[in-house]
Design brief:
Blueprint (H helix, E strand, L loop, with lengths): L15 E4 L11 H12 L3 H14 L15 H14 L4 E5 L7 H17 L2 E5 L3 H7 L3 E5 L2 E6 L1 H8 L6 H15 L1
Parallel strand pairs: 1-2, 2-3
Antiparallel strand pairs: 4-5
Helix pairs in contact: 1-3, 2-3, 6-7
Length: about 180
């Protein structure tokens, strides 16, 4: 695969949160200590941050695990903890890599509701995923990348038009694009 270099530039004062595919935690910090650390780095007012933390812990069913080490959590619990840490900062932009890995159906629903709430608040969401049926339901614009190359971009309607599949799903369009590329070789 041919890797590309690039740059992403944000306007001054834009806050963003990154949610990696594989959760990353400091081994020696509990989830609550991770939240304290995030709040300190972001300069969040203590009263506001603690209220938000309690709400998110309750919403994601992690209240009784807040003072435990995330390294002891299940994969799904770790993913939920990463979501909480991202949301604590109330960012302008979320950068999310494969958010559905390890989430059970209830946690996925909760995550999607949270993202929708954040989008309605005005936050931008940039998500990388292979779960095309879910992406189709929650995203407004798409970039289709195949074999390291940008092959299509735009709304679902734009992509359908490019693939000549007027009622096609994002999954069907992706395969049309992938098959079309493999035939060119």
């Amino acid at each position: 695969m041919d890797h590309k270099k690039g740059a992403v530039e944000f306007k001054n004062e834009v806050k963003y949160s990154y949610i990696p595919e594989r959760p990353i935690f400091y081994d020696e910090l509990t989830l609550w200590e991770h939240m304290d650390f995030t709040a300190a780095v972001e300069g969040l007012p203590e009263l506001h941050y603690k209220k938000k933390a309690e709400e998110l812990l309750k919403e994601y069913n992690l209240s009784e695990h807040a003072h435990k080490f995330p390294g002891t959590y299940s994969k799904g619990m770790q993913q939920k903890a990463m979501l909480i840490l991202a949301m604590i900062a109330v960012p302008d932009v979320y950068i999310i890599d494969e958010p559905f890995i390890g989430l059970d159906p209830n946690a996925m629903k909760l995550f999607l509701e949270s993202i929708d709430r954040e989008r309605k608040r005005g936050a931008g969401i940039l998500m990388s995923t292979h779960v095309l049926d879910t992406a189709e339901k929650v995203c407004s614009r798409f970039l289709i990348v195949h074999e390291g190359q940008l092959k299509a971009s735009g709304t679902l309607s734009d992509i359908r038009g490019n693939c000549d599949l007027p009622a096609g799903s994002l999954y069907e369009c992706f395969h049309q694009i992938a098959e079309g590329n493999s035939n060119e070789k």
